[in-house]
Amino acid sequence: MHPDQITYADRFDGISGRAIREIFKMIAKPDMISFAGGNPSPSALPDTEVARIAQTVLQEDGKRILQYGATEGYPPFLESLKGYAEEKAGRPVPAILPVTGSTQAMDLLCKALINPGDVILVEDPSFLGNLQCMRLYQAKLVPIPSDEHGILLDALEDAIREHHPKMLYVIPNFQNPTGKTLALERRKPIAELAEKYGMVVAEDDPYRDLRYSGTPLPSIKSFDEAGWVVYLGSFSNVISHCMRV
Length: 245
Ligand SMILES: Cc1ncc(COP(=O)(O)O)c(C=O)c1O
Fold this sequence. Notes:
This protein is of the alpha/beta class and 245 residues long. The chain contains 7 helices and 7 strands; from the N terminus they run ααααβαβββαβαββ. The longest helix is centred in the first third of the chain and has 19 residues, at 47-65.
């Protein structure tokens, strides 16, 4: 039998990576300044600094770094990450899990929370890569309209009442693909709606530190008194995508 006859799992029905592949083809053109993907300028990639740091840590603690370790990660990294994560989230964080990029965090969240048919509320439009991940877990995606200040709270609450979602996926700063930033006055209400209706908020915030003017806004997580918000950070867009942290 030819491998063409392999039947794929139902969860692959309707899945296509084509859009992302097309975008990456365009990005690869040397004369292209593409706004389609979140790729930094090559001149911003800190290759020399990363080489120096890698050499230092491997020389100082290489045997431990190259060995199997605790699931929660390399202890000195966890220690330094804690302060960084708390500054980003704007509050003490009870648990931090280093993963291979925010993409893996989304995958783990879906794996842990989403049954086929569960509803995830998403901004309209939203980040292709994570929408794909949610579809792989057979979530039903319900788009929520936005204005220039991000997701509309009335529409959000109406959708929560109608669809009883498991999760809201939101990119609060310099949203991909719209570039919009969620207004300060909409952030606390989102944390409150999550608690009121029992809905997890996946706050995907890889672009927070790419602010060139003004002060960073408090995260939705900073208003999360009850613990419904999972804050996803990333070093992809401030250091390098390929570090996968
Ligand atoms: C909104 C958003 N979330 C997540 C990612 C991917 O992050 P990571 O490279 O940490 O997996 C991207 C891409 O850069 C993105 O635009």
